Amino acid sequence: MGEVVPLIFDKKTNDIITCGAIHEATKKWAIGTVGTTIFVYTKGDDIPKQISICKDSVRSLQFNITGQDLLIADKAGNFFVYNIEDQSAKYTKIKAHNSPIEVAKYITDTIIATGDSEGHLKIWNIEEDKCTQKFHDEKEYISDIAVVDDKTIGVTSGNGVLSLYTINRPKRRQYYAQEDDDFVSVTYDPFCRYFICASSRPKIYVSKHPSLDFVCEASMKSTRPFVGVSVLKTNKCRAVVAAENGTVYIQDLHPNHLIYAWQAHKKDIHGMDLSGGLLLTWSSTNEVKVWDITEKRDEEFLSDHKKKKLKKQGKLPVIAKKKDTFFDELGDGESD
């Protein structure tokens, strides 16, 4: 077990950060800003490439599978596929939506899903330069999209609904609704075949694919809203969850065990993105950090008995550099 989660990038920007994306294989990460500029960093290089293609604030970013292209969406309802090395747009769709785009995701390299602030979901074939499907099942904003395979996606909305869609099928296949809550983020675990949704209540909800039957829920005893969730690619139902108070949790969800937690930002976290073992987090105070959580990906759950034994031996790992609070419930607390 490692002592702390290694921090490999830590920078404060002059711009308000709205979204971010990271790609483990190429060691690149990108942040979008309210001022329309996108900054793309490469590990070991403090000087970022700048992309100025958006017409309004940047709302969504995602690298393609190779890390060479960046899918960009903005508040004006436009989206772009931008080649980072050539520094040129491979594809541009102006006014793809009449409302601000909240999220854009690759389904394949040529099929893209976009969702806006009014609940409209659209599927695009960029090779044919056309929208192939439109849905408007929920009237609240679309918060996130999780890709299951090249034909299936799970979509969350701000009224606490997870919807299942199949490419080229005219209607929504299935949905799961959580009353009196919202969903801010969703991820898909291919090993367990579970959707994992994060809410601002704060709660984590797990449901089966494709039935969307409820499996379990977790809160990690946080009192602040969750802002992001992403599954770790392991043979366990394990996810990374970011909370608004600056805490990041690594949590087994079925069965429900806290594996690790640390104060990633002193004040808050505004968003997160995960690629392999690299975690990107950003705050409302314009801090950008990249963490290497590779060692924590397959770490075993420690029972109370084993924790006490390790503590006596002085081998219990710590959360932060300042104090040993590895298995504190953390809740709403901030580091000194």
UniProtKB/TrEMBL annotation:
<keyword id="KW-0677">Repeat</keyword>
<protein>
    <submittedName>
        <fullName>Uncharacterized protein</fullName>
    </submittedName>
</protein>
<dbReference type="InterPro" id="IPR036322">
    <property type="entry name" value="WD40_repeat_dom_sf"/>
</dbReference>
<dbReference type="InterPro" id="IPR001680">
    <property type="entry name" value="WD40_rpt"/>
</dbReference>
<dbReference type="InterPro" id="IPR015943">
    <property type="entry name" value="WD40/YVTN_repeat-like_dom_sf"/>
</dbReference>
<keyword id="KW-0853">WD repeat</keyword>
<feature type="repeat" description="WD">
    <location>
        <begin position="94"/>
        <end position="134"/>
    </location>
</feature>
<dbReference type="InterPro" id="IPR050505">
    <property type="entry name" value="WDR55/POC1"/>
</dbReference>
